[in-house]
Fold this protein.
Amino acid sequence: AQSVTQPDIHITVSEGASLELRCNYSYGATPYLFWYVQSPGQGLQLLLKYFSGDTLVQGIKGFEAEFKRSQSSFNLRKPSVHWSDAAEYFCAVENTGTASKLTFGTGTRLQVTL
Amino acid sequence: SQTIHQWPATLVQPVGSPLSLECTVEGTSNPNLYWYRQAAGRGLQLLFYSVGIGQISSEVPQNLSASRPQDRQFILSSKKLLLSDSGFYLCAWSPQGPPYEQYFGPGTRLTVT
């Protein structure tokens, strides 16, 4: 079965600094991969997705992620973090089969200091 | 464009009372539909999913049930709530084709007292 690991539970960065959130997956074939963001008390918002083609994926809000098959990773990056980026970030991989369920990581909470 | 609605936004219910949470999707047809629960400070737990009207699959045995009476309507129910049912309930939809990305509603905060 597919699995997703987000090794960092909590990360703190200064506003304006660069950000990288790690995500590792376990899957035999080329996966469909996603990053979501959740602000407190709200639903999840899709930041970006990878399913084929260019391994560097651009998303909303200035985020990007790079698919590295050799490392089974799909890390999320942003060159300059804004205070409004403080939230919980979830990586997910699609489970093949009926209804295409997603397997989510446990999330990384991002705190931004001013 | 597609939108997904959930109501109510918040709910406080006593133990043993019934529950009905509703989710509707606009702007798409024949979506896959999902119910998740998120406990405080925890990840997402998939409760139910549906690939079509009347087709419900359960992921976790519990006192909750789900129904899909219409193509774009998904209902989460319980006959008798438990304290452990408290949490943040999220509905999501995905298209039938790849990459099956899911789009989430705003959620319902349920507190069982």
Summary: The CA atoms of residues 12 and 111 of chain A lie 5 Å apart. Chain A has a mean pLDDT of 92.
